[in-house]
Amino acid sequence: MTTPNSSTPVQRYHPALMALHWLMALMIIALLLGGSLVTAPTPNTDPEKIGHIKGHMIVALSVGVLLIVRLLVRLRTSHPAPARSGMAWADRVAPWTHWAFYVLVFTMLVSGMTMAAMTGLPDIVFNGKGSLPSDFWHLPPRVVHGIVAKALFALIALHIGAAVYHQVIRKDGLLSRMWFGKR
Ligand code: HEM
Ligand code: HEM
Fold first, then answer.
1. What is the rounded distance in angstroms from the CA atom of residue 103 to the CA atom of residue 106?
2. In the chain, what are the domain boundaries?
3. Which of 23, 114, 145, 147 to mutate for ligand 2's pocket (most ligand atoms within 8 Å of CB)?
4. What are the distances in angstroms from CA 64 to CA 45, 81, 125, 181?
């Protein structure tokens, strides 16, 4: 996709978008793995839990700020024409899967922040005031957070699978579109 006012089609995403892509990929994978394997399994009665939640919230809120910056960069920079996979249906679906990332990550942020607001987490975690509820599962945003996390895991698996398909089977050098070089 090129923006309407770009005269020469570009071969790569903008370097700022590439940097944000890889930084956020690392942060989001860390949040998903840390959230599922460390934060959620630790009982709320465990003294370590507040520290786990604190780390999770700091990384998540940084992702929130970067997501806004990324959306602005994405909307204001020119990007390469849609990749061709050799399958018409996949070519139609691919751009939607990219937008789905923005929607799912945003939903994780909103459900996480709602859960935090409902239980006074900012005060408990950052000011040492109050105590954690016995668990978070009675809160609807906790249920949403868990379900959307699984959907995000699945989307990332599909996305990595598609990148490997392009790189190894189609051999079209798709990864270079998301890597630094001459535009
Ligand atoms: C090791 C993991 C990953 C690999 C190998 C990878 C690879 C790529 C590649 C090659 C593209 C360019 C596709 C094209 O030219 O059409 C791309 C785009 C994109 N990737 Fe990833 N990616 C990874 C992880 C992630 C993660 C974790 C997210 C978000 C949670 C993500 C979100 C996106 C989005 C939204 C785009 C479209 C560009 C944009 O609108 O920002 N990727 N990725
Ligand atoms: C990109 C944003 C986020 C991602 C990817 C993410 C990911 C996750 C994951 C995967 C879990 C474990 C879910 C499960 O195993 O069922 C989790 C738990 C949790 N998340 Fe997030 N999260 C994000 C944002 C937030 C935010 C913004 C907050 C709060 C401000 C938050 C607070 C929590 C808490 C408190 C838990 C533990 C719930 C429990 O112990 O039952 N998360 N998160």
1. 5
2. 15-178
3. 145
4. 28, 28, 19, 27
pLDDT tens, position by position, 72-81: 999 999 999 9
Q: Ligand 1 mean position to 76 CA, how many Å?
A: 18
Cβ count within 10 A of residue 119: 19
CA-closest candidate to residue 132, choices 30, 51, 34, 33: 51
What is the b/e burial string over 22-52, where b = at least 16 CB atoms within 10 angstroms of the residue's CB?
Answer: eebeebbeebbebbeeebbebeeeeeebbeb
Chosen CATH of 15-178 out of 1.10.10, 3.40.720, 1.10.101, 1.20.950:
1.20.950
Tokens encoding 134:
């016995």
Atom in ligand 2 nearest the alpha carbon of residue 41:
40
Burial class (CB in 10 A: 0-12, 13-18, 19+), 133: middle
Do residues 141 and 118 lie in contact, with contact meaning Cβ atoms separated by under 8 Å? yes
105-124 pLDDT tens trace: 999 999 999 999 999 999 99
